[in-house]
Amino acid sequence: GLIGSTIGGLLGILVMRQSDNNFKLLFLLASIPAVLALCVLILFVKEKVTNYKNNINKRKIQFSSIKELGKKFWLLMTLVIFFMLGKFSEVFICLHACDNFGLNVSWGTIFPVIYSLVSALVAYPIGRISDKIDRKNVLLFGFIIFTLSHLSIGLAPNLYFIFLGTILWGTHEGITDSMFASLISDYIPKELRGTGFGLYSLLSSVSMIFASIIAGYISDKFGMHVAFISGAVLGTITIVILLE
Fold it and tell me: I want to staple 172 with a disulfide (CB 3.0 to 4.6 A). Which of 51, 61, 97, 146 is the partner?
């Protein structure tokens, strides 16, 4: 994933610069790997036949199971909702840099390359660190970096601060993604982890959709920098909730 996203982002820059920012050509070329992956999946990947009747978990999914997830899990989900409402699409970084700082649109894909690389490099050592200290403290550090990344971009006087904010963005992503998953595993019984992770995916996905819609509205009405500052406010709220 890291190699693919990095190479893909760099190729995107090359295509845009060589084609005079031809978006149609970029998306056409970007669809080729997806088509090839689908062909490989259909032609070469075969699922092992399994007798599912003998492997069905005897415990049926019931709404009453949600109550068994516990208070710690639901407090964590409250944090997730506030956090994800501030974690709008990274595309806003590119738009902010191009629209307000004069960055050529052909360099837009450099931002996904940066934060993907940083996120991947941060995730492993953070995982090792969290095995030795309280994971809530590591998550708190991730929230602080999240807030600083938004402030760096929202209050940026020049492009250097946009790139700094992008590095911080990748750093917080590597921290928070790992910590949310680890804390969910810590807080809920093993037999309910599927339910817990499913709810986490649902709540985080819906929150991120609303985050991008809200950020788009704020950007249109008040400017893109205000959207990032709003994200920093939500980051501060998550810090306060976690400290209580």
Answer: 146
